[in-house]
């Protein structure tokens, strides 16, 4: 069995990738967005964190959290977010992916992949790269021709604050230059 090592830094800033089971495109549906919003709000009320940046794609999401000083427990937060989402999504009529016998024995549902990927953001330059990666992601996946056209992204908040122009990302050739925003290290 693999041993997953996570770097826990109290008050840290973390980049996350969370993926649906079987990469099912459920997150940008009206039900998926509503359930995720409710789950995030519920967990943030109980276990606070600052959701610094986010992009919601059909089958996965990327986000950056700032944890409170002295707190490093992002794992409990993700477990709670996934559990709340699953409860509301299934109650709202959502369906789940088929699951293995192993997952069934462990009481897991077919909504999320088992784990998530996290990366400790070490400095301001890396934070900028991670935020850029989040915001360019819909373009990278061919979902839009312009970053500003993707509705489910914190790009619009960052652009309104003057951190990006409305045309940021226009003209970037993702196929020809996959390393322009850090390559695959954030997938």
Supply the CATH architecture of the domain at 13-122: 2-Layer Sandwich
**How do the helices and strands follow one another from N- to C-terminus?**
EHEEHHEHH
| Main sheet characteristics | 4 strands, antiparallel
Count of DSSP strands? 4
Report the top-level CATH class of the domain at 13-122.
Alpha Beta
How many helices does DSSP assign? 5
Strand content: 5-15%
Q: Strand order within the widest sheet?
A: 2-3-1-4
Instruction: Name the poorly predicted regions.
Output: 176-187
Polypeptide structure, described:
With 187 residues, the protein is α+β, with helices and mostly antiparallel strands. The chain has a domain at 13-122: Transposase IS200-like (Alpha-Beta Plaits, 2-Layer Sandwich), CATH 3.30.70.1290. Helix content is 34%, strand content 13%. The chain has helices spanning 30-46, 74-91, 101-105, 124-140, 155-160, and strands at 13-19, 50-56, 60-66, 117-120. Strands 2-3-1-4 form a 4-stranded antiparallel beta sheet, with helices on one face. The chain is globular, with a radius of gyration of 17 Å. Mean pLDDT is 91; it is low at 176-187.
């Amino acid at each position: 069995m693999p041993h997953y090592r996570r770097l826990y830094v109290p008050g840290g800033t973390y980049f996350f990738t969370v993926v649906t089971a079987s990469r099912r495109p459920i997150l940008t549906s009206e039900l998926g967005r509503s359930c995720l919003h409710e789950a995030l709000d519920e967990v943030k009320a109980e276990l606070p964190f600052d959701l610094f940046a986010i992009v919601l794609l059909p089958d996965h999401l990327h986000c950056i959290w700032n944890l409170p000083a002295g707190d490093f427990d992002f794992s409990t937060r993700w477990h709670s977010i996934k559990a709340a989402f699953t409860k509301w999504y299934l109650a709202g009529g959502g369906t789940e992916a088929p699951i293995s016998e192993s997952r069934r024995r462990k009481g897991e549902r077919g909504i999320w992949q088992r784990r998530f990927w996290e990366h400790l953001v070490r400095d301001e330059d890396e934070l900028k790269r991670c935020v850029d990666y989040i915001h360019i992601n819909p373009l990278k996946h061919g979902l839009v021709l312009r970053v500003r056209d993707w509705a489910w992204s914190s790009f619009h908040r960052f652009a309104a604050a003057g951190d990006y122009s409305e045309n940021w990302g226009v003209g970037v050739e993702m196929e020809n230059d996959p390393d322009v925003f850090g390559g695959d290290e954030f997938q």
